[in-house]
């Protein structure tokens, strides 16, 4: 049981955590994967190589320590992480493993400061937080299992369609092998997909946004081929090797970023592959006959303009507004997205804004919106990969 003494002790260790920085969580992951290599089949090992996961975990641990007396401040983060955990099929027993290695990491890295009192306090704090996640995730598992077309754990799906959407993005329509219905989702959510890439050491689980509206029969996800230093193992496998008729394992839809039905006008803002969850919202808004919708999109050039024809057809049909920026050349506008160029065309004082794209892009858009006095509660965003606060 977490008590006031435990809380005070945990708070007293904040300077220790901050001095250790992400090195603490790097040690934690190295330790855990060394002792429990089976967890490499759950965690994204590319994020381990880039260091993104270590930084994200450190920020989460530090935020918990700083807000341990005000957990309401962490509600949105807990919800976001709980959804992500269910797409990895994380269960209660995994928390026991993680907790053990977290405590042992603190013992190994701060042996002098890690007194029995500190160990007791951090053990109680971890168990308290873990139970919050376990309870919320079990609610999500049961909710999806009991819904029409729902299921628990993995379910086999067959690739029914594979279609390029732009230079780097390809869509996959996936239908259940068992021929049954599939559970609906909220526009903006994602699926967890499990595959075993050729040449890969581990089973890999990734999350990809659903890019069409729910239909009860199949799912469409749209995947960007990740290149560069840390070449996307799963994205390249999906692009190069997965063909019509092949099967993959899916976990039910998840995610706390989704369209929330209101009477307000809607502005959809995305860049690059960030168009994928936005596209699901666009289709759903069209189906629901939403009147006041604006669509803003940015990418490098026409070849990378994802869903260009599909989006144009929807927007023309509905008479909505659309504005595009190409970084390398002229579209409606050239360069980075500048909301000042279209401010007079947007319902800034009343709209809800849904944003998805690279973190730097979203930070820029949020800053611009705040400069136009758009309240934070009307700004909604999705970060691909480990969570980042804007």
Brief summary of the model shown:
With 390 residues, the chain is α/β, with parallel strands linked by helices. It has twelve helices and twelve strands. Helix 1 crosses helix 8 and helix 3 packs across helix 7.
Strand fraction equals 15-25%
Q: Tell me the structural class.
A: alpha/beta
* Ends distance: 33 Å
Count of DSSP helices?
12
Number of domains: 3
Q: Kindly report the CATH topology of the largest domain.
A: Globin-like
Q: How confident overall, as mean pLDDT?
A: 91
Order of strands across the main sheet? 4-3-6-1-2-5
Region (Reductase): 149-390
Domain Globin: 1-138
Active site: 95, 137
Keywords: Detoxification, FAD, Flavoprotein, Heme, Iron, Metal-binding, NAD, NADP, Oxidoreductase, Oxygen transport, Transport
What does this structure look like?
By secondary structure, the protein is α/β, with parallel strands linked by helices. It folds into 3 domains: 4-146, Globins (Globin-like, Orthogonal Bundle), CATH 1.10.490.10; 155-254, Elongation Factor Tu (Ef-tu), domain 3 (Beta Barrel); 266-382, Nucleotide-binding domain of ferredoxin-NADP reductase (FNR) module (Rossmann fold, 3-Layer(aba) Sandwich). It contains 12 helices and 12 strands. Strands 4-3-6-1-2-5 form a 6-stranded antiparallel beta sheet. The protein has a 6-stranded parallel beta sheet with strand order 10-9-8-7-11-12, with helices on both faces. A hairpin with an 8-residue loop joins strand 3 (190-195) and strand 4 (204-209). Helix 3 (22-35) crosses helix 7 and helix 6 crosses helix 8 (116-146). The longest helix is centred in the middle third of the chain and has 31 residues, at 116-146.
């Amino acid at each position: 049981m977490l008590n006031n003494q435990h809380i005070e002790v945990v708070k007293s260790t904040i300077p220790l955590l901050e001095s250790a920085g992400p090195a603490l969580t790097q040690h934690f992951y190295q330790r855990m994967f060394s002792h429990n290599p089976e967890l490499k089949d759950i965690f994204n090992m590319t994020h381990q190589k880039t260091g993104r996961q270590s930084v994200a975990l450190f920020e989460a641990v530090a935020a918990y320590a700083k807000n341990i007396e005000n957990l309401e401040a962490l509600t949105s983060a807990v919800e976001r992480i709980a959804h992500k955990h269910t797409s990895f099929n994380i269960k209660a027993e995994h928390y026991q493993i993680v907790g053990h290695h977290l405590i042992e990491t603190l013992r190994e890295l701060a042996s002098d400061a890690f007194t029995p009192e500190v160990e007791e306090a951090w053990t109680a704090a971890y168990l308290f937080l873990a139970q919050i996640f376990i309870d919320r995730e079990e609610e999500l598992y049961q909710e999806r299992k009991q819904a029409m077309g729902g299921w628990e754990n993995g379910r086999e799906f067959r690739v029914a369609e594979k279609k390029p959407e732009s230079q780097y993005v390809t869509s996959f329509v996936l239908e259940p092998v068992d021929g049954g219905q599939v559970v609906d989702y909220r526009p903006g959510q994602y699926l967890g997909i499990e595959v075993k890439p050729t040449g890969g050491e581990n089973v890999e689980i990734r999350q990809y946004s659903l890019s069409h509206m729910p239909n009860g029969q199949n799912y469409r996800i749209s995947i960007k081929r990740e290149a560069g230093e840390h070449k996307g193992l799963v994205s390249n496998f999906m692009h190069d090797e997965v063909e019509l008729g092949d099967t993959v394992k899916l976990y039910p839809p998840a995610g706390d970023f989704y369209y929330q039905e209101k009477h307000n006008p809607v502005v959809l803002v995305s860049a690059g592959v960030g168009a994928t969850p936005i596209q699901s919202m666009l289709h759903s808004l069209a189906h629901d006959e939403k009147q006041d919708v604006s669509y803003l999109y940015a990418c490098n050039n026409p070849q990378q303009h994802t869903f260009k024809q599909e989006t144009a057809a929807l927007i023309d049909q509905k008479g909505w507004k659309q504005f595009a920026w190409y970084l390398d050349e002229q579209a409606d506008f050239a360069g980075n997205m500048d909301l000042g160029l279209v401010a007079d065309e947007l319902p800034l004082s009343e709209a809800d804004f849904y944003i998805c794209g690279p973190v730097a892009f979203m930070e820029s858009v949020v800053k611009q919106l705040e400069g136009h006095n758009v309240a934070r509660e009307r700004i909604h965003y999705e970060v691909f990969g480990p969570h980042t606060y804007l």
